[in-house]
Structures are given as structure tokens and as C-alpha cells.
Design a protein that fits this description.
- The chain is an alpha/beta fold.
- About 40% of the residues lie in helices and about 20% in strands.
- The chain has a 6-stranded mixed β-sheet with strand order 6-7-8-9-11-10, with helices on both faces.
- α2 links the parallel β1 and β2.
Length: about 325
């Protein structure tokens, strides 16, 4: 299934790589990894990365985005990574490109590129990009491997989630053979300063439970200002404070922003994706996200999660 993608890369001199906004480790890892896969095997090509800032993942080597003019898109190939819907893409100018390709592992929502490689059996987009490299006999250098491994680790929950399978470890093994330092990744990913530890403790104390034992946290905009953290960190990084609570199979993190309420949905047992889709979001069966306009809608989502817990949804 990868031949069409490889042919596109061979046929275009300029390649622009996109991913979803507010990037996580998989989005950044697949973007950086694919860039350096292409440069390693086709050094004469111009390869750019576009999108918003790397934020929490700015520690990753070559995580700074490129400044690309509209004119550069003319005659270029745009490759879109780790995005289930077009509205999630950071930098919508891919529509100006001569050819578009999508590589993604989320549950299918829509077609928005010329060539679509969507495979939900992969634990991460980075895993899918790694499979592409191996299937096409591309050389993988240490920089690309390190980025791709970082995305595999983060999107698989350190290889704990259901999406992890024997292929995941085979792909990870192929990346490790390039010789990068694992400790450099884990030091940055999981080391917290004391302020972060305090923040997580405060969020733990905010955990509430619905009538059907769905764990949830609701954070108002004023609280973010008091805590001195941004909405992305509060939403994505803090949802994990509710994981591994005995007797809790579904949990959701609500974070107020100027543009509505960010919702991060997680489950250890149930497929919560249809509920995320109902509210305009998407993702995976057990890890999805959405944005809703207000508190009342967020509480309606919580009721739907309650019903799912009871087998009514």
C-alpha cells in the first residue's frame, strides 16, 4: 500500500509535511521522522515542516517549524500526518499543493487528500511511517529513528495500550538498531520538576465522579491563570491523572478555553470514540478528543459517557 506514497516522494522536488495542531509526541515524531527519512534517501529534495509550535515536544531534535511561502506550495507535494479530519491540520495551505497524501492511524472520518493511507491497526502514526520505511527498503538514520520511536512510545502509552501488538515491538526494534540513546528520550518525556509535581497533585484533588463512576475533571479558565499553565498542558497532560484508578473504566478531562471546552476522553474497556464523534471530535476507540462550546454541552457528554458505562449508549 506504500508504493503510491513512495512514487509521489520520488516525483516531487519540494515536499511539505503537515500534522495536526497542538501536536503530541506522535504528531511531532512522525513529522520529524518522515522529513529525515526523505532527506536520508533523497538528499537533493527540499523538505519542509509546517504547523504550530512543538510546545511540550520542543526538546525533540529539529522540532522547529519552517517558514514556507504560499508560492512554495505550487508544484509541491504535501504530506499530512496523524490527522483524522481536515480541520485538525495545522496549516491549511496543503490545499495549494499539486498533490496531497495522508498517512494516519485514527478511525476514518473523511477523505481529504489525493492518496490516503489510513490503518487503525497501528498503535501510532510513527509506527505506520516506520512500516513505510521498512517496506520500501529506505535507510533510517538515528535522528529519524529517535523521533519515530518517541511517537511510538507516547501514543502506545509506553506500549501498554490495546493497540500495541507484536508488530509494534518489531518496528521499535528496527528503530533501536540505529543506535540512538533511549535515556535521552525518557529523561525529557517523563522527568518532572517540582512545580509540575505540585500541579499534578492539584489536578488529582480535582477529580470527581459521575453517578455511574466516570471520573472527570473540569478546569475553568481562571484556574489555568492561577496555576500558570496553558490549556494544552491542562487538557492533554492532566488527563492521565485519572488513569489506573480501581473501578474506573472511563475518564474525561474538560478544560475551558476562549474557544470553548477541550474534552479528552479515555477508557480502559469501552469504545468512547462514537461519543467524541457525536460532539464533533474523533480519535481512537479508547482515546479520543473533541471541543464543545460550553459547560452545559460538556455535562451532556458526561451523561453520554455515564450511559455508555451502563451499556445504554
Amino acid at each position: 500500500m506504500f508504493k503510491a506514497v513512495l512514487d509521489c516522494i520520488k516525483n516531487f522536488d519540494t515536499i511539505i509535511i503537515h500534522r495536526h495542531s497542538r501536536p503530541d509526541g506522535d504528531a511531532m515524531g512522525s513529522q520529524i521522522g518522515l522529513k529525515h527519512l526523505i532527506l536520508e534517501n533523497f538528499p537533493d529534495k527540499k523538505v519542509y515542516m509546517v504547523g504550530d509550535e512543538a510546545r511540550h515536544y520542543s526538546f525533540m531534535e529539529d522540532s522547529t517549524m519552517d517558514e514556507v511561502s504560499d508560492e512554495e506550495f505550487s508544484g509541491a507535494l504535501s504530506i499530512l500526518l496523524d490527522s483524522a479530519t481536515s480541520e485538525l491540520i495545522s496549516d491549511s495551505r496543503y490545499t495549494l499543493a499539486s498533490k496531497t497524501v495522508r498517512i494516519d492511524h485514527h478511525i476514518y472520518c473523511e477523505t481529504f487528500t489525493d492518496i490516503e493511507i489510513v490503518d487503525t491497526s497501528f498503535e501510532s502514526c510513527c509506527g505506520l511511517v516506520t512500516a513505510f520505511a521498512l517496506d520500501c527498503n529506505l535507510r533510517i538514520n538515528a535522528l529519524a529513528a529517535k523521533a519515530l520511536y518517541t511517537g511510538m512510545v507516547t501514543d502506545s502509552g509506553r506500549f501498554r495500550y490495546d493497540s500495541t501488538n507484536p508488530r509494534s515491538f518489531k518496528l521499535a526494534s528496527a528503530l533501536l538498531e540505529t543506535g540512538f540513546d533511549l535515556n535521552e528520550i525518557y529523561r525529557e518525556l517523563y522527568a518532572d520538576d517540582f512545580k509540575s509535581k505540585l500541579t499534578k497533585a492539584k489536578f488529582t484533588l480535582k477529580i470527581q465522579f459521575s453517578p455511574k463512576n466516570v471520573a472527570f475533571i473540569y478546569t475553568k479558565k481562571e484556574e489555568l491563570e492561577e496555576l500558570g499553565i496553558d490549556e494544552f498542558y491542562a487538557s492533554r497532560a492532566m488527563v492521565g491523572t485519572m488513569s489506573d484508578i480501581k473501578g474506573v473504566d472511563i475518564w474525561v478531562n474538560f478544560t475551558e478555553t476562549d474557544n470553548g471546552v477541550l474534552c479528552e476522553l479515555r477508557s480502559s474497556r469501552f469504545n468512547i470514540n462514537p461519543i467524541a464523534v457525536k460532539y464533533g471530535g474523533g480519535g481512537h476507540k479508547k482515546a479520543s478528543g473533541a471541543s464543545v462550546p460550553d459547560y452545559e454541552t460538556a455535562m451532556a457528554m458526561l451523561k453520554d459517557l455515564d450511559a455508555l458505562q451502563e451499556g445504554e449508549a
